[in-house]
Amino acid sequence: SVARQEPPSQTSPCSSIYHYINFGNIFLDDKKWENSARLFDKAMKQDKSWAAIAFYSHAYCTIQLSKGDYLTQAKEDLQKAQESLKYLCEECLVCLQFIKMASVDSGKGEPSSLEKQMTSKCSMYRFFDKNITEAIQKIDEIKEKGRDAIAKKSPVFSLVSDADEALQLEADNLYSRGLKYVFSVEEKPRFCWEGLVVFLLGVLQIVAGALLTVFTVGTLAQIGMGLISEGISDCIEGITAMVTGEFSWKEWAIGKAISIGVSIISFGVGKIISKGFKAAKTAIKAIGKN
Q1: Half-sphere exposure of 263 (CA within 13 A, CB side)
Q2: What is the 3-state secondary structure (H, E, C) of 157-212?
Q3: What distance in Å separates the CA atoms of residue 252 and residue 282, rounded to the nearest whole number?
Q4: E-state strands within the chain
Q5: C-alpha to C-alpha distance for 61 and 27, rounded to whole angstroms
Q6: Which keywords appear in this protein's UniProt record, sorted alphabetically (predicted)?
């Protein structure tokens, strides 16, 4: 029968969301992203209203696969996960309101254990929702830069403090429902060729500054020292860019323009002071002779 044939292929004969999520997590642990994404996709299609975990985990696999317009696809999955999570939050809040109403009617001042549990559950959902929001924001930032992304996973228990036992229990509840991991989105590290160009420009400036200082016999020593100083600064900036992968030509150009402007002004002021000093010295000598 069909029911007997489906379990070996890891397909649920009863079309259970959590069955698909469970086997999707097995493939996820083995880093078989395509198989994992396929099973999460099946869970998503079962009931979009209650498939927050499936949408979320599918977004993780999509980023790991990095195929096509994967950032847009991952963002859409995360948005759907957030929409689905709203149903769980609303259900939890309604239950909490009924519990509070019952507590008021009973005349008890202290919150009951059930009220505390539902409060912790609502808090757990808020932490999960915040994680999704941060991932969406980071994807938008990376897309705007035209860069690639990576997803770094961590246990679901990392969402909440170890010291809060009630929240840890709720994290365990999400874990049992298939949310084994949460993830953060980061920009994929890359070699910054712009940084290398700036570093080489810095080296050229140092060499040019040294040659000016040596071969002009001190006439253009101030300019030479300025070039050496600028060259060292560019070398440092280039190395930093190559290490971090972050560089902006616009910021570099603005900084360079300011630096050159200050150098020109300093050089001009220095010349004026030098000429003034020589003129004063000549005048003093003339007065002394008279």
Answers
A1: 16
A2: HHHCCCCCHHHHHHHHHHHHCCCCEEEEEEECCCCCHHHHHHHHHHHHHHHHHHHH
A3: 45
A4: 149-155, 181-187
A5: 10
A6: Membrane, Transmembrane, Transmembrane helix
Longest dimension (CA), the chain: 125
**Residue ranges, the chain, pLDDT below 50:** 1-4, 269, 271-281, 283, 285
> What phi and psi, each to the nearest 5 degrees, are found at residue 219?
-60, -45
- Record the tokens describing residue 163, joined without a space: 């010291």
How far apart, in Å, are the Cα atoms of 17 and each of 23, 48, 202? 10, 10, 59
The angle subtended at Cα 67 by Cα 64 and Cα 72, nearest 5°, is 85
- Positive or negative torsion for Cα 136, 140, 143, 147: negative
Q: For residue 32, count other CB atoms closer than 10 A to its CB.
A: 14
CA distances from 3 to 9, 10, 12, 15, 46 (A): 11, 11, 8, 10, 17
Q: Give the residue carrying structure tokens 């008021």.
A: 104
**Residues contacting 137, CB < 8 A, separation 6+:** none
- Over residues 153-173, the pLDDT tens digits come to 999 999 998 878 999 999 999
Q: Across-strand partners of 151?
A: 185
Query: For the purposes of burial, counting CB atoms within 10 Å of the CB of 221, is it exposed (0-12), middle (13-18) or buried (19 or more)?
Result: middle
pLDDT of the residue at 42: 93
Distance of CA 59 to the CA centre of its chain: 16
Q: Give, as one character, the DSSP assignment of residue 9.
A: G
pLDDT digits 0-9 by tens, 172-183: 999 999 999 999
